[in-house]
Specification:
Layout lengths: L1 E6 L4 H12 L4 E8 L3 H11 L3 E4 L5 H8 L5 E4 L1 H9 L4 E4 L7 H9 L3 E4 L3 H17 L2 E4 L2 H9 L8 E8 L17 H4 L9 H9 L1 H14 L6 E5 L5 E7 L4 E5 L4 H10 L13 H4 L13 H12 L3 H17 L7 H16 L9 H26 L10
Parallel strand pairs: 1-2, 1-5, 2-3, 3-4, 5-6, 6-7, 8-9
Antiparallel strand pairs: 8-10, 10-11
Helix pairs in contact: 1-11, 2-3, 4-5, 5-6, 6-10, 6-14, 10-13, 14-15, 14-16, 15-16
The structure holds NADPH dihydro-nicotinamide-adenine-dinucleotide phosphate and magnesium ion (MG).
């Protein structure tokens, strides 16, 4: 029986992971589940799966969680340190599905003890890719990609020599606004940005898909995970979301990974790796699908892509600053303080300021420096958000929400 821990168990990836595990209860013992605000879901799943420990990252919710778990064998804990401690407990397989930079430290705990980390939390590689991959090599830990594009690349590379790879193409649905007239984008509302044409995901990644910040994060994730140079990584819009990525080899062959837009495939692949087992995902009827289409992403529609490419090429601490600024800009959009297009404006201006003042080129990066950069970028981005919210964005062409 394998022991498993799920970090971010109450979210979209976490719930899909639980769905797979709950289908073969005899195969798994659940060590720990973690969540944040949704303690009712956390407690119900922890009791249902017989977990040893349930942790909320919110210290103020400790007593409520304890009450919900009373009468069961499940222990309760709370706070970010308790989430990291849950990750450090021995378990054969850990799903990293916390959203945002908060996933970094718990993931590192798993790598420190040489464990197996199924990585949905892309921010781990965006903020600290080199550090994370070096650590995994040193401790003998295993990192398995769960982001659908990276799982697809990983599968296409099985049995192949990385030196024979000429390019990697990651696909993007184009998000909620791929067919909108450009002039409407500045006025896009939160509800409109929170609807994905193909995937059912958490709200933050859904909005990041509309802006393509998500694809920007994935560019950096690709570079860091596969150690491939930025000029070999491409993004193509593929509205059907059936091809998740393609790997091009030096002989001209292009290997595509094709499957339904269902995260249980990538999660299940990481769960059973290196074997393949039955998974409850739709089998594609190619004759019914008929056509797969592709188009180049427009720079004006997706300014986040060019920003991410610059960040990917610069390396060092740029990824940590980029991600933190993006998280702040996203918070400000969700709170109604800035408009949809202003998110890219906030990130760009924050990075410009930090590049000039804060030494983002630092190549030898340790965890403390990454966390400091993350914090600093949040401060800088908060100042920039205030400027944008006050209206000085209008002259720079980044429209405010009407
Ligand atoms: P959700 O928002 O659905 O879930 C996030 C999870 O993290 C929840 O369990 C939430 O708890 C918890 N959480 C939130 N804030 C904190 C915090 N500060 N500390 C600890 N835990 C926290 O996100 P998704 O499942 O959509 O995404 C998770 C990660 O996977 C992201 O990095 C995303 O980019 C990545 N990913 C997601 C995909 C998807 O299909 N959803 C696809 C590919 C990658 P609670 O809900 O209890 O508040
Ligand atoms: Mg993805």
């Amino acid at each position: 029986m394998r022991s498993v821990t799920i970090l971010g168990a109450t979210g979209s990836i976490g719930q899909n992971t639980i769905d797979l595990i709950a289908r073969s209860p005899g195969d798994y013992r659940v060590e720990a589940l973690t969540g944040a605000r949704n303690i009712a879901r956390l407690a119900a799943d922890a009791i249902g799966l017989g977990a040893r420990l349930a942790v909320t990252s919110e210290p103020a919710l400790y007593n409520d969680l304890k009450d919900l778990l009373s009468g069961s064998e499940v222990k309760a804990a709370a706070g970010p340190e308790a989430v990291a401690e849950a990750a450090a407990r021995p378990a054969d397989w850990v799903m990293s599905a916390i959203v945002g930079a908060a996933g970094l430290v718990p993931g590192i705990e798993v790598l420190r003890r040489g464990g197996t980390l199924a990585l949905a939390n892309k921010e781990t590689l965006v903020t600290a890719g080199q550090l994370v991959m070096d650590l995994a090599r040193r401790t003998g830990a295993t990192v398995l990609p769960v982001d659908s594009e990276h799982s697809a690349i990983f599968q296409a590379l099985t049995g192949e020599d990385l030196d024979a790879v000429e390019r990697i193409v990651i696909t993007a649905s184009g998000g909620a606004f791929r067919d909108w007239p450009l002039e409407r984008l500045a006025g896009a509302t939160l509800a409109e940005a929170s609807t994905h044409p193909n995937w059912d995901m958490g709200q933050r990644i859904t909005i990041d898909s509309a802006s393509m910040f998500n694809k920007g994060l994935e560019l950096i994730e690709t570079k860091e995970f596969f150690g491939i140079s930025p000029d070999r990584i491409e993004v193509i819009i593929h509205p059907e979301s059936l091809i998740h990525a393609l790997v091009g080899f030096r002989d001209g062959a292009l290997m595509a990974h094709v499957g339904p837009p269902d995260m249980r495939h990538a999660i299940g692949y990481a769960l059973h790796w290196p074997e393949r087992r039955d998974l409850p995902v739709e089998r594609l009827d190619l004759a019914r699908i008929g056509t797969l289409t592709f188009r180049a992403p427009e720079a004006a529609r997706y300014p986040a892509l060019a920003i991410a490419r610059t960040v990917m090429e610069a390396g060092g601490l740029h990824g940590a600053a980029f991600n933190a600024a993006k998280e702040c800009a996203l918070d400000a959009f969700i709170a109604g303080r800035i408009g949809f297009l202003a998110m890219a404006g906030v990130v760009e201006r924050t990075l410009d300021r930090m590049s000039a003042q804060d030494g983002l080129q630092n190549a030898a990066v340790d965890l403390d420096t990454v966390l400091e950069t993350d914090l600093l970028a949040r401060h800088r981005a908060a100042e920039v958000v205030t400027q944008f919210a006050a209206g000085d964005a209008v002259e720079s062409g980044k429209g405010l929400r009407s």
